[in-house]
Amino acid sequence: MKTIFRCLAAASLVFLAAPHGARSxxxxxxPEASPKALLTQTVGIADIQxxxxxxxxxxxxxxxxxxxxxxxxxxxxNENTTVTFSQPVSVAGKPLAAxxxxxxxxxxxxxxxxxxxxxxxxxxSYFYKETEDALRIKVRAQPAPMMEWLQYEFSDLxxxxxxxxxxxxxxxVPVSLAFDTRGxxxxxxxxxxxxxxxxxxxxxxxxxxxxxxxNSVNLQEALTWADRSIAMDENFSNLRVKASILEKLGSLKxxxxxxxxxMELATESDLNLLGYTCLQDGRTKEAIAVFEKNARAHPxxxxxxxxxxxxxxxxxDVKGAIANYSKALSLVGDDANRKRITDTIAKLKAR
Length: 351
What we know:
This protein is of the alpha+beta class.
């Protein structure tokens, strides 16, 4: 009997121990007290991801109690809250390399310390080591509307900046982020874009020059890119972009000749686009002149009269608009545009 009891006892111990050791077997899936959340945001060409768990207030005192003042806190619940930057970033004016960081905070009644740790795989802040800090910054918490569940959010977005804020209970902890978006784009143009298939085309060098012109950066190098584009295939687009770059650089001598040459090479679609660009910029008189030139150069196209009519309509010349819409109507073939132009003429006549 003693042998039987000893065997039964041993079997019981094995049975009780099995759930602890049998991690490969199915386990019960149940809600977490602090559910996991993932927040992503693109700023310019940089991607940011925040992975965290969301504890609730649940009627508890938070600041100075559940989260003590002056102690390292996991800035969430459960394992490390992590922040991933796909590109180098400036955090509150201080540089931080691209990568994934464990996020910790030291709450203070007046000032908070926000810590980006190179250790992003530990459980909470229990294994935090100051020697693993990649960056520490000081910020001030701000009063905020009640937030039951801890939440991270982005605000104040531009193409190079954003504010990442932790919000919980009635506090908000904002962290300012900035990326050198122009520099990142230019590095991509030099090191990747123009060293790939784009580097064999006039369009590639034109696009690179146009980016610089549009953003008023790197204009001297942009001028060389415009020249490379022109050398491959002189056309309306690359001549215009070179003229505009020279104009921004204050070198005006060759600008009129470049623009005159561009007009000689302009296609119907080139002139149409130029006219609408003038129209959108409020240069209505200049837009009408371009649309008229296009109509003279392409008298069999319904679209040139449609565009000219739109320019005249914007200038207040209703009679001229009706006349040109009518010309467009006599040439257009598709039903959708016929209906649109017919309706527009009717509205203009009803004025």
